[in-house]
Each structure stands twice: as C-alpha cells, then as structure tokens.
Amino acid sequence: MHARVGESILQLARETGASSLFVVGTGKNVGKTVTMRAIYEACVRDGVAPGLASIGRDGEAVDAGDALPKPRLRLSPGTVIATARDVLPRSPATEVLELPRLQTAAGSLVVARVRASALYELVGPPTASGIRECVAVLLRHAPYAIVDGAIDRIAALAGGGDAIVVACGASAAATPEEAVDDVRALVARLRVPAYEGGEALEIDGALTPSRASELIRAKESRAIVVRDPTQIALTGKAALHALSRLQLRARRPLRVVAVTVSSLGRDGSFEPRAFARSVAEATGLPTFDVYTAERAA
What we know:
Blueprint: H1 3-15, E1 20-25, H2 32-45, E2 51-54, E3 57-58, E4 73-75, E5 80-84, E6 94-98, E7 103-104, E8 107-114, E9 118-120, E10 122-123, H3 128-141, E11 145-148, E12 163-169, H4 176-190, E13 200-202, H5 209-217, E14 223-226, H6 236-245, E15 247-250, E16 255-262, H7 272-283, E17 287-289
Parallel strand pairs: 1-11, 1-12, 2-5, 2-11, 12-16, 13-14, 14-15, 16-17
Antiparallel strand pairs: 3-10, 4-9, 5-8, 6-8, 7-8
Helix pairs in contact: 1-2, 4-6, 4-7, 5-6
C-alpha cells in the first residue's frame, strides 16, 4: 500500500480524537495486516512510535491454518508491541516494559519496546476483556495503539473509544456482489447510531436473530436500544433486513472511519476499480484499495 493511503487512513482516525484504531475484516486474508502495516508505517513517518497488538496472530511467515505465506511485520525502533513472550526474537533484543497477567495461545503476554529493526510476530489475548486491557497497557507506553482485529471476536470493540477500519476482499466471498453485501452489512451494524431519547425498548444482552425476528413480526416501532453495536448478533442479509425494519440504536456507538478492499483472492480476483467503487457506494465511507493504493471515487 502506498504511503499516501496509510496517511489518509491515519488522518481519518485522528479526526475522531481516538487514541486507538482497530482493523477488522469480513473474513480471513482480506488485507487486515496489510492495512495495519500501512497505518503503522504512516505513524513512523510522522515521528510517532505506536503500540501494536493483535486479536489472534499476525506477522508469522505462513498461516497456521492453510500453510500459505502471510504478510510479515518489520518494525522500527521505538515501537511498542504486545505479544507472547515465547515468540519474541532472541536477537535483536527488545526492552521488556510490562508483564500483564494475560495469556495468549502461545503463552504469557509481554509488552516490549523494539530496540532494533527486525521481523516480529504479534500474538494477542483471545478474550475481549484481555484485548481491552492490552490496549490500556500499550497506551501507557505509546501515544497511539493499532490493533489487527478479527471479526469473530467483535466484542473486543466494546468499551473503548477506538476508530475502526473495515477490510474486505475477494478471499472472503465468491463474487463481488457477495463481498459488497458482506461489508455493507458489517459496516451498517457497526455504525448503528446513538440513542438520543424517545420511546424505546432496551435490550439486555445480545440482540439475537430470533429476538430480531420476533420484533419485526410484531412491527415494533420503538427504538431498539442495545449497549453498543457489538451486541447486535446478526450478520449478512439478516443484519441488513433487521436494520431496514427496526429502529436500532446504541448507548455507546462505534466510530468506523474507512474501508479497505483487496480485489486479489487466493482463488480468484475482482475488477479492482469497480469493486472499490461498489464498496464505497454501499458503505458511504472513504474506501481504499490495498494493492492499487487508490481511493475509490
């Protein structure tokens, strides 16, 4: 991704006043790590040494699930990382800053400062509360935190004042239309507006597909209020249907600032400009192609 795209996304995130940014995707291999790396490099060029973390695992040479190559993370001196202690490189040395009482799939979590440029892996806590604690620790040592997210752990977005970038691409859908529907639904769910008063039905816990269907059948006209958009347990066309029929609102809304698209998949590809343009039209958000480094018109 060209420098200007990372810088554009970073500027959009900063305009929200957020001190942390999550990159989440509609599926695997849709450009999350490439997007995070571009934003990270924009920080470094701007003289900011950010903190980095992952919900899952990033930066390894090959994917543990399918043994295919993955984007590597070459980090600059001063960068603060949260990762499993056992995956820290033995050389060059890193400065250990904190040892939170958090576990990852690869062992105990450590927060460390990079002292020499090298390739690093990020392995983060598997729970939403663990990620929130991890971000808080990073922000004690860095002015800004960037987290490579995972959509199946969307609960990690709750409880923070983060900016959010959504990544979508050809690897997670069979057709461009399917990919556009997926990202439209995800963005619409994450961008449920704030509740600003009036007659309302408060939902305690998650808004499940069955509960949403009941409310639609009952032609519920009151505002349906959830704690935050991560409580809406609907995806794809079910989410779009509920959002079109119900007045969904959130006590604590989230801030989605941009979308990135990857038109290259492992089993095929989409026409880049048409795909990016369709995603921009569907989401109403600034949309950037992670390979052509263009912003959709």
